[in-house]
Amino acid sequence: MRIDGGVRRRVWAYVRSAPGTYVWLGILFLTTVALHHMSPDFEEDFLRQRSTNIHELSSNPVRVLIASAMWIDGGFWWPYVVLYSVFHAQAERWLGTVRWLVVCVAAHVLATLISEGALLKAIRDGMAPASAVNTLDVGVSYALAGVVAVLAYRIVVPWRYPYLAVVLVVYAVPLAIGRTFTDFGHFVSVLIGLACYPLVRGRGKAWNPKETVAALRG
Question: Of 20, 54, 111, 144, whose CB count within 10 A is highest?
C-alpha cells in the first residue's frame, strides 16, 4: 500500500514541528532494539545499572537520571510512538522545545527523587525490604505524566476540567489501589506538571474543542 505524497508531507511536517519528541523516540527505538538482542539475565543486570534505584542514585545520580530516561522496561516501542505523538509532540509544538524539555526534566527528576526518598523512608521504617534499594526503575513514564498534566492548560475552560479530572483519576486510582513507589511517582509527576503553569503563560490561544468540531462539520 502506497502512502499519498500529501500525507507523507503532513507527517514529516508534524515530526519536524516537535524535534525533541522524535529524537527521543529515535533513541528509544535504538535502545529497544539493543534490549531485544540481550539475554534475559544480562538485560536485567544491564538495566539495573541504569536504574534510578536508591543504590544507583546514591553513587551515580546524574548518570542514572539521564540513562534511565533512554530505556523502556518491557521492550514494546510502538505504544510510545502513539503516546509521544499525542502528548509530547503536542506539548512541544505548543510550549516550544526548551519549555517542553523543562517540564519533562522537572517531572522525571523531581518525581524520581521524591518517590525514591519515600521508598528509602519506608525501608528505614521497616515497611519495605532492604532489597528494595536495588529495585529496577527505568523508563519515561514520569516525564510523560508531567506532560499529560501540563497539557490541561492547553484546553480552554470549561473543557479543561473534564480532561484534568480524567488525568487525576487515571493516576490516582493506581496509587490508591497499589500504593507502590512507582504509582506515587506518577501522581507526583502529575502535580509537577500542573505546577509548571508559569511556563505556559503567553503561549497562544487555548484549544477549544467546540471550534474544532464546528470546523470539521464545515
Answer: 111
33 burial type by CB count under 10 A (0-12 exposed, 13-18 middle, 19+ buried)? exposed
Rounded to two decimals, what is the model's pTM? 0.93
Domain that holds residue 75: 5-200
Residue 28: inside a domain: yes
Cβ atoms of 110 and 174 within 8 Å: the answer is: no
Distance CA(147)–CA(26), nearest Å, equals 19
Residue type, 68: S
Grid cell listed for 149: 498534566
For residue 215, is it within any domain?
no
Buried b / exposed e along 73-108 (16+ C-beta atoms within 10 A) = beeebeebeebbbebbbbbbebbeeebbbebbebbb
How far is Cα 13 from Cα 159, in angstroms, rounded to an integer?
28
- CATH code, domain carrying 14: 1.20.1540
Q: What is the pLDDT of residues 85-137, one digit of tens each?
A: 999 999 999 999 999 999 999 999 999 999 999 999 999 999 999 999 998 88
Peptide linkage before 158 cis (omega within 30 of 0):
yes
- Counted domains in the chain: 1
Query: Grid cell 492548560 — which residue?
Result: 153
Crossing angle between the packed helical segments 181-195 and 97-124, to the nearest 10 degrees: 140
Condensed to tens digits (0 to 9), the pLDDT of residues 51-60 reads 999 999 999 9
Instruction: Kindly state whether residue 216 falls inside one of the protein's structural domains.
Output: no
| DSSP structure class, residue 76 | -
